[in-house]
Structure formats: structure tokens, C-alpha cells
Design a protein that fits this description.
heterodimer; A: alpha/beta; Pyruvate-ferredoxin Oxidoreductase, domain 3; Rossmann fold; 8-stranded mixed beta sheet; 20 helices; 23 strands; 40% helix; globular; B: alpha/beta
């Protein structure tokens, strides 16, 4: 079982609501799902869609063939009917679209009429649509009723009952009016966790002890800001919408200086404004975590679409020589760990840490078996309270063998905590002399880098141990690469190398992957950009040059079929 | 030993006669009078001659980037609102590069005290016009004279309903120390714009120029009236009033942020036991 449901319509029509409802039903039924969103930069109108892939085995990436198309507008019919699979169906409301399609693949469900008749409100048309899809698939309706109840914020008995009647009416209609539906949904299993990319980052931040989040809204990072704000009351967080991105990255450094774990998030344009702040964090050795959720540039680019063009921008942003850590998770599981390590390592080494994602990761949704909160690491590396008071003396930037100086909480002891964006001495005061300069660069950069480098993990190797074909990628392409390996494995020895830990680049001692690359007959670097940023990085760091690259830069993510076709042309 | 000696820092690298010395002396005296200890306060500064200020006294210090004093100060206050935080900035620093932050700090009413070394010129970069340079002033970059009209920071602050607006003069130490104390004791965002003669690059706004014009506000002046404050803030001709132009109290940002009711964020322990509930929501 592997079904792809596409819900298309204009912005504001409720695509998201139907998608959220169906996802909740599928996850509670124990199915695996992967969903992703394609939307335009507008609040009303246009044409948007969301896809939900449903399976009884884990799924990670978008597919092209559509099994059920829920068409809320005429554009959905025009653009997506050609994508139907051999048994695919289109669900639509001929009354609402003022168009009757005479085609056995089309199932006409009167969303609005059933909503008014059974629910008493026109707005429940989306509930009818969700019910109809589940009816056609053969998924029981009770789960839908439960999901709707959970989703409603302040339900009155009247709305609850109306929704339930609308759901049941849509479900029955779907069962009765699609006699030739050939969907065979397997039995239920254990309830799954379901989470979006941005939510996974925000949740991991809270679980890592982040207490302060400041950001300026920018797609596709805004989901993190929304989530943090929604949890502020429950978890004692301070969430501040900054007046601009310069303010955001400086504000989190103030909070971190005062002793609180802090984070910001933005996209490429906002990150451009934060670049001076990356440099400041490096100079003042202030731990912060920054999420760079990429979208296609240059400039405003495609505000709501996906691209991986800011990898090198992220790794090298900041005037001067700035130490940093960078991760690019491609799944919620990777994000949980990467964000937790980002907070831990940023504080351990007193450097900025970057989480680099993109719109495809940020807005996608996965099911997982679950995550144990106990797996999150929390080490407090700061010196505060009595421990600080007991120190005989204190200098914020004192020279140490590791290059890491004690990070104290100002105010907890008579010692002063002084730091400066100017070159400074051990106490943090401004200096001009060459000798101190050299020692400081050695301390904050050269001594720390190999230590941080030793913390970085090699790429994830999935598939054959001695592959003839190696697919290489980073960030959000994890899923599509992994599925490509599965699809090709019957015919040949194939493997994936996925980089989540990107900077410092895995040290030579951890470059076993290089042997895999060199031994392969074909190594292909797959990226959502035009020029191959990871390929450039690997060549710069190891000398290995990819003979083959697959680059997609139309603002859309790779699909399983699309990538396999591209790979096929290179084998 | 004078109590203010406790607030003595490194030897200043300012030009001899710089107005900043007066600000520094007044600050040391104000801190000693308030009975604070150096580790009990944090000073944030930016870039410019004013940026070096915290090094010349004793305090926790974050000397950050040009224009970004207020965001850093805001972050510190939100993390630890029991820590008094003063921001020292220059006119170019705060009204130019960081102008947007200035507006929003007043809107938030974050309990940060902003002291602006306003010398109406760029000192560190050697003599270009600043946002408060008077129109017509000739500089190496504006050889025909400054074309833009000068900014009036105290009038802007009154317009923004800034909860404490004062103007001081580095040549009047007694008044300046009192203004500093009043600002530190005020509950809410405070601006003290300080005329600070640049003896090297500003040949127009000299000690004498200021002395001829500055007049302390009358003893009976009521800083609680915003309309009068607006009128007095606009006076910038033959006489320029100094003192507290406008003062009112309203809830500070720290008081409005729900999470801070339980105490400073930095003092609230991380409670991992609450996490299970956060994760449960996603099942």
C-alpha cells in the first residue's frame, strides 16, 4: 500500500485543514505518511496544493502519480488530472466548481450541499471532503470524528455534532459513489507520532533548554516562531518578535550573555542581515543557535519555494575568521538530534551553531514511531551561582589549553564579566598589541576547531556496503535519496551518503566515506541548486570531484520518480 | 578614598578635553551615590568613542557592534530583569545605524537606560556629519555643508511616548549625575541625550557654544505633561533646555512578558520533567 493524495485549491480554501485532518487520522491509524506543501506567496487565491503519501512502510519523499486528487478549484482539475495513477480518482464538487466532468475517474461529491444539510454550516464542506476521501479509501470514519474533535479549539456541542454528521455524510457518500474504487488500505497498527519539520526544530530547541527565541517573520522559518510563541506560556519561554533580523541576532546574544540558551531563525535574506551578528558571536564567544531555512534566491527569489543554495553562504557568513558549527537535518529524527547537539556544542565551545534547512524540510510532515524525551542531552556548561563566587579570580576570555574559557553568569559573583567586539585581552578589554591578537586567534579559533571537528559525525551511509553507485546529498534530500536507493537496490549495488554534519567538515580520520566514493563506478551529487554547493565543499575538503551531478533549481523538491529518471540517464 | 573610585576603570584613550570625561565622572559619582556594586550592573555599548565607555569604569560589559546596543541590552533584560542595564551609545551609533532599534525600544518600554554621547559629529571616523549635526555644518564629506536637517532626539522620544526623556550637558557634572541617577531609578525605558563637545572634530558645537545656550529647566517645570514637554523638546535656538523633559510611568516590557512573572529567566531552572507533555501532543 502506497497512496498519494493531492489536495489542490486556492489559498484560503482549506487545503491545509483537510491535509491536517487526514494526516491526523492516518497517524492515529498507525500508517506511515509523508506530506509536503506547494504554495504561492499570497494569502488568498492562486493555486496551492498539499500531498499526503500514505503507506504501511516508512515513506520519506514526494511521489508524482496521484491516487486521489481532491480538487477544490478548477485549476486542480486542469493541472493535476494528468498526474492520476491508473486507478486514480478525482474528488470534486460539481456544484461548487460549476462544472460537471463526464469521466469515470471523477467522483462528484456535493461538499457544500452535504455540509449544509448535515452539518448546518457551509464551512463544514472541508469535513465532508475529508470524510469522502476516507470513505473511498476504506478508512473507518470514527477516527475522523476523533481527529476533528481534537483539532477544534473551543468546540460548542452544536459544532461538534454538526462536524460529526458532516464527516459521516461525506464518508457514506464516498463509499456509495465510488463503487469501482480499488484502494486497499491495510489494517490499523500502533499510533504514530506526526510532526512537521519546523515543529521538530522548535520542539527540540525547547527540549534542549532554549528559553529565549527572537526572530523577524520570514518564510519558511516562521513556523518555528509560531510554535515557540504557542508554547511560551506552557514552558516559560520568552519569545520576542524583533524589529529586524539585526535586532534578533543581537538580542539572542544579549540573552545568552546573561545566561540563557537562545535561538533565532530566518531565511536567506534575513540571514544576510544577521551576518554581522555571526561575526559578533564568534568574537565574543557567545553561544547561540541560528536556523537558516533556505528558499530560492537571489534577493526575494521564490518566497514560498525550496532550494539549497545557501550552504556555503551559511558556512562562511561573517567578516573575519569565525568558528561555527553547522548541521543540515533532513528528517525530524535528524533534527531532534542536530538541534540538541547544536545547543550542547554551541555552549560547550562558545561558538554560533547553524541549523540549515529549506522550505521542503520546514513544511513537510512525517510520521515516526516516537521519540523519548530522555534522549535529549542537557549539560549546563556555564559557571554560575556559588561556583562562580568561589572562583578566586575570573577573566571571561582567559587562555586555556582547549581555547574554551569559563562562561560565567554575570551578576552571580563580584567578578566582572566583560566581552568586546573589538580584539580584547583575557579580561575582555580592548587591546591593540600584536601578541595578544595572535594568542586570541589561536584560542578562539585554532584551538577550538579541531576539538569541535572531532565531535562531527561522518555522513549516514545507507544501502550497499560496497556500492557501484553512490548517491550523495544533504539536508532535505535525505528521503528522496533513501527511497532511490531502495528502488534501485534490486538491480545493482547502490548506497546513499547523506551529510547532516557539515561544519567543521568531518575530519580526515572520519572520512571513510571517501573510500566509498572513490571505489564507486558512479558517484552522483544530488542537490537543489544550480551549481552544486555540497559537491564544491567535498572537493575543497577532500579533493574528490564528482563526475556526475543532478541539480534541480526550479524551486520544487525532487520526487521519487523524477530523481530515478535523472539517475537512470547517468548510469 | 572616594566611593566613586570603585567605578574607576582603564585609562581612557579619548582626546584631552573630550566631553566624554565629564560623562564618565558623572557616571562614577551616580553609581557610587546609588550604592551599586560594579558586578550588579551591566553596561552595553556600541562603536564610536562612546563604545569604549564601559572599559573606563567597572561593570559587566558587552561592547558589541555599531548601532546594536539596544537589541543586546533588551536581550539581557529579558534574560535577567533583576540586572540593571545601561546602554551607552553615540549619536551616529544610536540615531543613525541603530535608529530602528531606538524606536522599538521606546515602544517596548524595556527597562534599559540609554545614555547618548551626542557630540553632533562622527568622532571615531574623523569628522563626518552625524544625524544631529546642524544643517550647514561643513565637514570633509559635506564640504558645502550638511544638507539634511538635524534630528531632534528628545522631541522624537516625546513623540514616541518614551517614559523618561532627559537632556544633559557634559559640562554640568552636578546636573548630569542627578539625571543619570534619576534615569537609573526610573521604571521604564529612559533616554538621556548628553551634549558632549568633540574638541577635535566639531568646531561649531564647542563647550562655549553649549554654555551659551543650555539652561536647566525651571524648578517649577512639570515633566509629567506631554504637551508642554513636546514644546520644550523643540527648543533648539538661542536657548536649549536641559533636565528631565518628560517622565511618566507605564508597565515595562518585562512586566508585560508572562514568563517573567516567575522571576528572571536565568534564575528559572530548566525542568526536563515537563517535556513529556510537549512530545505527547504529537501523537
Amino acid at each position: 500500500m502506497d497512496y498519494n493524495i493531492k489536495i489542490g485549491g486556492a489559498a484560503g480554501q482549506g487545503i491545509q485543514t483537510i491535509g491536517d485532518t487526514l494526516s491526523a487520522v492516518f497517524a492515529r491509524s498507525g500508517y506511515h505518511l509523508f506530506s509536503h506543501q506547494d504554495y504561492e506567496s499570497r494569502v488568498r487565491g492562486g493555486h496551492n496544493f498539499t500531498c499526503i503519501r500514505l503507506s504501511d512502510t516508512p515513506v520519506y519523499a514526494p511521489r508524482d502519480p496521484v491516487d486521489v486528487l481532491v480538487a477544490l478549484d478548477n485549476a486542480s482539475i486542469e493541472r493535476h488530472t494528468g498526474e492520476l495513477s491508473s486507478d486514480g480518482k478525482v474528488v470534486y464538487d460539481s456544484g461548487g466548481l460549476k462544472r460537471k466532468v463526464d469521466d469515470p475517474r471523477f467522483v462528484d461529491v456535493p461538499f457544500v450541499r452535504l455540509a449544509e444539510e448535515h452539518g448546518g454550516r457551509k464551512v463544514m464542506a472541508n469535513t465532508v471532503a475529508s470524510g469522502a476521501v476516507l470513505g473511498m479509501l476504506g478508512v473507518e470514519v470514527d477516527l475522523l470524528v476523533e481527529a476533528l474533535t481534537r483539532a477544534l479549539k473551543h468546540p460548542t456541542p452544536e459544532i461538534l455534532e454538526g462536524n460529526e454528521r458532516a464527516a459521516r455524510a461525506g464518508h457514506s457518500y464516498g463509499v456509495e459513489h465510488c463503487p469501482d474504487c480499488r484502494f486497499a488500505v491495510s489494517g490499523r497498527s500502533v499510533r504514530k507520532m506526526v510532526i512537521e519539520g519546523n515543529q521538530a526544530i522548535a520542539l527540540a530547541a525547547i527540549a534542549s533548554g532554549c528559553r529565549f527565541y527572537s526572530a523577524y517573520p520570514m518564510t519558511p522559518s516562521t513556523g518555528i516562531l509560531n510554535f515557540m510563541a504557542s508554547k511560551a506560556a506552557d514552558y516559560g519561554l520568552v519569545v520576542e518578535q524583533a524589529e529586524d533580523e539585526m535586532s534578533a541576532i543581537n538580542m539572542i546574544q544579549g540573552a545568552s550573555f546573561a545566561g540563557v540558551r537562545s535561538m533565532t531563525g530566518t531565511s536567506g535574506g534575513g540571514f544576510a542581515l544577521m551576518v554581522e551578528g555571526m561575526s559578533l558571536a564568534g568574537m565574543t564567544e557567545t553561544p547561540v543557535v541560528v536556523v537558516l531555512a533556505q528558499r530560492p534566491g537571489p534577493a526575494t527569489g521564490f518566497p514560498t519555494r525550496t532550494e539549497q543554495s545557501d550552504l556555503l553562504f551559511g558556512l562562511f557568513a561573517g567578516h573575519g575568521e569565525v568558528p561555527r558549527i553547522a548541521f543540515a537535518p533532513g528528517t525530524p529524527e535528524q533534527a531532534f538530534r542536530a538541534v540538541n547537539r547544536a545547543f550542547d556544542l554551541a555552549e560547550k565551545y562558545q561558538v554560533p551553531a547553524l541549523i540549515i534547512t529549506d522550505q521542503h524540510y520546514a513544511d513537510s510532515r512525517w510520521t515516526l514511531e516516537g521519540i523519548d524525551p530522555e534522549t535529549f542531552v542537557y549539560n549546563d556548561y556555564r559557571v554560575g551561582g556559588e561556583a562562580f563566587a568561589e572562583l578566586p579570580e575570573y577573566a571571561r576570555h582567559s587562555f586555556t589549553d582547549s581555547g574554551v574559557s569559563p562562561l560565567a553568569v554575570p551578576g552571580d559573583a563580584p567578578h566582572l564579566v566583560v566581552t568586546d567586539s573589538d580584539e580584547h585581552d583575557e579580561e575582555g578589554h580592548i587591546v591593540e598589541d600584536a601578541e595578544t591578537r595572535v594568542k586570541m586567534v589561536e584560542k578562539r579559533l585554532l584551538r577550538k576547531l579541531p576539538l569541535i571537528g572531532a565531535e562531527m559525525e561522518p555522513p549516514e551511509h545507507y544501502g550497499s556496503d560496497s556500492p557501484e553507485v553512490v548517491l550523495v546529498g544533504w539536508g532535505s534530500n535525505y528521503g528522496v535519496l533513501r527511497e532511490a536507493v531502495d528502488a534501485l537496490s534490486g538491480e545493482r549495488e547502490v548506497a546513499m551518503l547523506h551529510f547532516c554534519d557539515l561544519w567543521p567538515f568531518p575530519l580526515p580520520a572520519r572520512q571513510e566515506f571517501l573510500e566509498v566514493l572513490r571505489a564507486a563506478r558512479t558517484a552522483i551529487c544530488v542537490e537543489n541548486n544550480a551549481t552544486g554547493k555540497l559537491a564544491w565543499l567535498i572537493r575543497a575538503e577532500t579533493g574528490f570531484e564528482f563526475a556526475e551531478r543532478i541539480n534541480r533549481f526550479d524551486g520544487r523538491p525532487f520526487t521519487c520518480e523524477g530523481l530515478l529518471e535523472e539517475i537512470d540517464g547517468r548510469l | 578614598m572616594d566611593a566613586s573610585d570603585e567605578f574607576k576603570g582603564q585609562k581612557p584613550a579619548w582626546c584631552p578635553g573630550c566631553g566624554n570625561f565629564g560623562i564618565l565622572t558623572a557616571w562614577r559619582r551616580a553609581m557610587a551615590d546609588l550604592g551599586l556594586k560594579p558586578h550588579q550592573l551591566t553596561v552595553v555599548s556600541g562603536i564610536g568613542q562612546s563604545g569604549k565607555f564601559p572599559h573606563y569604569t567597572q561593570c559587566n560589559t558587552f561592547n558589541g557592534l555599531h548601532g546594536r546596543t539596544l537589541p543586546v541590552a533588551t536581550g539581557i533584560r529579558l534574560a535577567n530583569h533583576e540586572m540593571p542595564v545601561a546602554a551607552f551609545a553615540g549619536d551616529g551609533d544610536c540615531y543613525g545605524e541603530g535608529g530602528n532599534h531606538f524606536l522599538h525600544a521606546m515602544r517596548r518600554n524595556i527597562n534599559v537606560k540609554l545614555f547618548v554621547h551626542d557630540n553632533q559629529v562622527y568622532g571615531l571616523t574623523k569628522g563626518q556629519a552625524s544625524p544631529t549635526s546642524v544643517v550647514g555644518m561643513k565637514t570633509p564629506v559635506q564640504p558645502e555643508g550638511v544638507l539634511s536637517d538635524e534630528m531632534n532626539p528628545v522631541a522624537l522620544a516625546v513623540a514616541m511616548d518614551c517614559s523618561f526623556v532627559a537632556r544633559g550637558f557634559a559640562g554640568d557634572l552636578d546636573q548630569l549625575a542627578e539625571l543619570m541617577k534619576a534615569a537609573m531609578e526610573h521604571r521604564g525605558f529612559s533616554l538621556v541625550d548628553i551634549f558632549q563637545p568633540c574638541v577635535t572634530f566639531n568646531r561649531l558645537n564647542t563647550y562655549q557654544w553649549y554654555r551659551e545656550r543650555v539652561r536647566p529647566l525651571e524648578a517649577e517645570y512639570d515633566p509629567g505633561d506631554r504637551v508642554t514637554a513636546w514644546q520644550r523638546a523643540l527648543e533648539f535656538e538661542d536657548t536649549i533646555p536641559t533636565g528631565i523633559l518628560y517622565r511618566h510611568e507605564r508597565p515595562t516590557y518585562e512586566e508585560r512578558v508572562a514568563a517573567l512573572a516567575a522571576g528572571p529567566l536565568v534564575k528559572q531552572p530548566f525542568d526536563a520533567s515537563k517535556l513529556a507533555a510537549a512530545f505527547r501532543e504529537f501523537y
